Amino acid sequence: MKKVHKALGTSLLAAAVLLVPQTSLAEGPKPASGETLSINGFIDYAEMNKTLTQIEKNSKGAIKIESAGKTNQGRDIFTARVGEGKKVLLVESEIHGNEKTGTVALLNLLQYLGSSQSNEAKKIREELTIVAIPMLNADGSELDRRANDMDWSEAVADFPQLASAKPSWNYYTKTLQGDDYASNPGFDVNRDFNPDLNYVPQAKDFPGASNQPGWFITPESQTVRDVYKKLQNEFGRVDVFLDLHHQGFYKIEGTDEDVTMSISAQFVPDPRTAQGGKYAQFAENYRYDYSRQLNLALYNALQAKGSSVFSNISLYDQGLDLPGTALGSFALNGSGTVLFEVKGQTHSLGQKQKGMLVNTVETGIMGILNGVADGSVYNLNPGDYERIPNRVNP
């Protein structure tokens, strides 16, 4: 597929492109032996708290900061709410603690949305209610690692019915990306979600697998679930859910150009198809076309910046079945969903290219916010999503 350097409109497409999930991790360049990659340019937990306090103050009531819960190590998980519209958007960053650009981007956008008197910011505040979780996995962020900081015995203490169960498959107890989980284990929080938002952990469901639902055994996933449910109760539905991540290093298919960010609208098989039949109970609420439109709004916003690294956007792997992710679970509950995956985690890139990657995330989010606020997202042809270039291993 040739790279597309322009926004995708509403033209009819000949056929959808079937994507095969990648089975290997494109790690890309690694630091030299003994080299420590700096991450000082990112925001740590204490700095985030101070920044949120200042953003709330500067907004003069437009933004409300609250603690929605606590991490396993007792750190507050903050939410920031802005806007008074009927369309609800929930966005989270750092569910993996070594994926930090989204946190910076969200703080920058909150400052703008809370304080700007521009027509753009006013329109977004009028049409949308935005709830942001800038740093979900604060324990992992402080350790600069993917997983949270939690032992299996702590999960069993919270849920005694799991005493006879084997630890969940997403429980890290070995060295991963240079992190010693053997002496300080933890869970991949983004595999701990369940489409049944009222699910209570049962021993028979462990250890589970990547294509099976999670369990809400970590306080971090429980917090997101609770925020989501409260918004459902208040508004009837969470219209949009955005999840901000990092990935390895890939190329745009058919080119020598590096992928700056991969995006996706698909995390579970469509419940309305035979392949997704096991999710049939969620079919009525599933909004795959809307998810594709949201991804197109993001993609078009970045293509509008012209032929540059900002336009090097690819599709993440399609054909996935990941109900244990926040994206998979919330998609089945009726949200339009968008995955952001910028290149390079902190163990492989540090803070290099931070400014460009943060700008990429900000531009993509604003494309979605404006598209939902002015209604233009609904005019996009969902089928054009299939024309976004694929990512491939270099």
UniProtKB/TrEMBL annotation:
Its cofactor is Zn(2+). Keywords: Carboxypeptidase, Hydrolase, Metalloprotease, Protease, Signal, Zinc. Pfam families: Peptidase_M14. Residues 1-26 form the signal peptide. The keyword Protease applies. Belongs to the peptidase M14 family. This is M14 family zinc carboxypeptidase. It comes from Fictibacillus terranigra.
